[in-house]
Amino acid sequence: MTDWFSRGATDEEMRLLGWQDQIKEAVCEAAEARTYEQILASKIVEAKPCGFEPYPMTAPLFDWQWVIVQWSIRKGRAALFCDTGLGKTPMQLEWAYQISMHTGEPVIILAPLAVSHQTQREGEKFGIQVRVCRSGDDVRPGVNVTNYERLHLFDMSVFEGVVLDESSRLKSFMGKTKRMLIEIFAKTPYKLCCTATPAPNDHSELCNHAEFLGHGQRNEILSHWFLNDTENTGDWRLKKHAQGDFWRWMATWAVCISNPNDIGFDGSKFVLQPLNIHNHIVDVSHLPSTDGTLFRGATDISATGLHAEMRVTAPLRARRLAEIINGSIEPWMIWVNTDYEADEVMPLIPDAVEVSGSMSDDKKEDRLNGFSTGKYRILVSKPSLAGFGLNYQHCAHVAFVGLSYSYEQFYQAIRRCWRFGQTRPVEAHIISAESEGSVLAAIRKKERAHIEMKARMIESMSEETVRQISGTRTLNTVIPEAKHEGEGWTLYHGDCVAETRKLPAESVGLSVFSPPFANLFTYSDSIADMGNTANWDEFFSCYDFLARELLRVTQIGRLACVHCSDIPSFAWKGEPIGIRDFSGEMIRSMQRAGWTYYSRVTIWKCPVVEMTRTKALGLLHKQLLKDSARSRVGMPDWICVFRKDGECKNPVMHTREDFPVERWQKWASPVWMDIDQGDTLNFQQARANEDERHICPLQIGVIERCIRLWSNPGDVVFSPFAGIGSEGYVALQNRRRFIGVELKEEYVRVALRYLKAVANTDQMTLFRESEMDRANG
Length: 777
Fold this sequence. Notes:
The protein is of the alpha/beta class. It folds into 4 domains: 4-33, no CATH class; 63-263, Rossmann fold (3-Layer(aba) Sandwich); 275-446, Rossmann fold (3-Layer(aba) Sandwich), CATH 3.40.50; 487-775, Rossmann fold, CATH 3.40.50.150. A 9-stranded mixed β-sheet has the order 16-17-26-25-18-19-23-22-24, sandwiched between helices. It has a 7-stranded parallel β-sheet with strand order 3-4-2-5-6-1-9, with helices on both faces. Helix 16 (407-414) links the parallel strand 14 (397-400) and strand 15 (426-433). The longest helix is centred in the middle third of the chain and has 34 residues, at 437-470.
């Protein structure tokens, strides 16, 4: 045995043993271990099941409820977004009971205040024993329930399953409760979230649910499907071209319904009773103004100004409430926003009881439960205290002494009584002052938006939800395949790797293109979109296949020009603020495929324009003055040039007339200082919607220089990312042929217009050449 492993074998020794070939083969085999198609399939984002096959049912559930519970048990970590009165309590009880039977360990249900005993009573009706726990000492195997307020009194690691009742507590992005819940249940095997319907336009709430359940990190979810134009984490919106993919993904871990017929079941028994809204406007014109003006009016009021106004009008509103309620023998639920409103109401309603934040939990629970059992006829409280989770179907009369700007609180408060199971029409009285009209208008506007977006969310999810719960899910991975041709050009509408595979070997004279910059932008929801990747590793696992195909189709001795730039890292993605070396990764990918890294051109870009476009703090002058260690220089673009090694049978030849010395000296510079960043084809017509703000066609001047420097007239110029056809447009103008591939249909339509126009206009070619001659000396 030699000691080559200790001292290192020489190249000659390795050649003798054939090790180099073996190593190369091993590397190639590892690279091809997964086919391109397998990688594409792995990009389909879905929540993986981690549950088990359900046991026979214990609770007397409806057929549609049992189907949902079975699905959630098989899923293991799921969310039930079911409207009020659809039976979330029996469904979560059955789920918790089955988890406890399967594991033999305790399961915990976390519920709002006073809902624990309500859950226990429901369990008794359904034959499931539920233990109400005040601390960890009370926990036993089986189903346990406690209030969120007692969370700190338990060791949550003892539970094999957890249910979040009214899981909208996960809504807050940076809330203390949200962070605590995610952290302490991070390793809990089985999880279930239950709430009415989350706000469909509150993406933080949806992302937080997914993160709690273990179906993705919030930052990754946002960067994959959402846009934040201002880099303000409160201003996220779903990319329009990604909506279908996002809702399909949500349906792999959440069921969202407002009626059983949303998922194909009979919903005739789940029709809400009428809700009659009575608006009572109190005249307050005789009161002094709170904003310093001579006259008060129904003007827009800020949240701060609203409190000042409502404090003044509270006595009048309370009196109007007393006129409505006193003399009635019906149960009433009275909602207030502040303690001073409650202070005005209580003396005027003799048999009312109040639940306030200053009371002990025991006293709160006694009064909240006492109202549901009929012990108390009239209950006064705030939506933040009693507006979540409680069932008050016995009450059909509701009054709001005032409103806040929170639609969610209004919605949840009114749904305590107006819910499935209510047998009478619900009469809701809203008492407000004339000067508070803007608040009521804001609530109505939010209500319309909520109803519309909720219906859209359910509709978007319903088809995939039916597939999920019926176990017949199929994946939609259709990739377009179309071919368009004209004089001197061919444009393929399809996947760049698949279409490049079809090209003959050594048929391309030069490739010029700008690839997606990893997962910085997602251009479509197609699995074949290289920008539609979770991370850099996934991007380059796909790009490596393209790099190898590019090498195969390129003539020996010829080049490929790849436009790229480095990429900022963002704090909202959980990264340290800095720069990621995308150009370096691109070079390494091309080298892995067998290309030789041959040259690089730096394209100067104005830092002022970059700062204006990206709002990068590091480029601001005030940042330089504040802390120069956090300032940076502007980021250029690059053209990285790669060569296919071997003897070139068709060299690129130039004449002195084509390339005077002066032009060559200018273009041979490692930095092109004179590229006009605005010299691009018009891409506005390619915008399918406002989300596509990242369409950035490669500058005409850059493409022109690459083509004229490194190809001959008549050569095939190839772009696997043809976009709106910029490379083809310039290639045809310069008497080259063009082959391109583009996946996105909107881009293909625009590219076809440009290719057809330039191919049929010889004068355009002559004009462009003379224009370039003047521009480049």
